[in-house]
Amino acid sequence: xxxxxEPTKAPAPNKWLAMLGVGLGVLMATMDVSIVNLSLxxxxxxxxxxFPTIQWVILAYVVVVTSLMMGVARFGDMRGKKExxxxxxxxxTLGSLLCGLAPSVGWxxxxxxxxxxGAVMTQALGAAIITEVFPSSERGRALGIIGSIVSIGLALxxxxxxxxxxxxxxxxxxxxxxxxxxxALWVLTRFVPPxxxxxxxxxxxxxxxxxxxxxxxxxxxxMTLGQRRGFGDGSVLTLLVSAAAGLALFLWTQKRAAQPMxxxxxxxxxxxxxxxxxxLLVFILxxxxxxxxxxxxxxxGYATHQVxxxxxxxxxxxxxxxxxxxxxxxxxxxxxxxxIGVLVIVGGCLALSTLDExxxxxxxxxxxxxxxxxxxxxxxxNNSAIMGAAPRHRLGVASGLMALSRTLGHTTGLPLIxxxxxxxxxxxxGPAAARDVTAAAPAVLAAGVNGTFRVAAASVLLSAVLAAGxxxxxxxxxxxxxxxx
Length: 485
Known about the structure:
mainly alpha; globular; disordered N terminus
């Protein structure tokens, strides 16, 4: 399947106001993600819980987002992208309010699931709205700007969250979304143009959504429960085997459904598939960043607001580089830039694998900075390649798949990285560390971080191999097209 040629499209007169409306929703959602990551050590103490349980404050959100992503993307193509996006923003704002009022960790996890129901609608359709509004000649630049907004949200979140937690407590990190959500809804309803719904007679794939929800739930529960009971425990093995069976069942149902949640035909385009897989592998690494606040607070002894400043390094670097990388991809194509970005990320992972108790503030910054540089170079060119390979009548699904690669990376990567980190700390720290990694000695925690990022480097190196393969295939196809013309 080759990319469909795109007709020349005149810029919409309100395209920048549309960008503002979508961008505000993206800013709020990404700020929330980075704030919650920062708050995990505080939540362990304030809510009297443990490391495996507190991971569900993130997992409840990403499991819901991941399991519904493709169904919502298809629903946006069916009913209109702006309408679904607006509903999602409203639900996310309500969920934020309830999270801020949660009386216990159980309620907080439940309300985070509600937040995820809203977030999935915005994440699945934001890039599709931007792709519709902007002409194809400006697609990389526009998606690069969205990438910068993501980076700004990720950068503001830790610093702002650290300040809020210090001044007003952990509840304020959720309540801050309420006024932001109101402002985003006002801009969105006034300035984002309505999108045409798809052909009538289409149906939402409830069976597919239910199967993938249960599959991811079993996987995440098995991985977090295994950190407490061990991965040889019968219930843990049952959950993981059920997850594998659920994945096979999901693919089987999608292949046979008349109107599937996931259009498997899109994967006949090899380049489209490779770019999505590259994104998945990179975001497994991004999920592993949730262990960094534990290193900075428990090993280095930094206060929460200081940790927030350190956590800004990666998103600031991403935000600075993303628009330029998107513009370069419009001019020269995305393949070389994506490959360079992935290689820089590998270098950043290897640098982080040398962290120890004695590392200085500048030593930490210099080790983590390549991660942000690499992500900035990789993100928008890779996204542009994904959206450019999709047929225009499947932009919602392509946008959903692109967002799914990110959220699936988080959903699979967070418990995987958490289990890896826990296993290494437990093996070095003895029985006490096995029961609670937050009680382990600083040197043991540092060693756990080292091993985790060595494994992450290997994962991203595979993504670099895929990027090189995509470059080779793309150049070969272009030579074939030139010889035929």
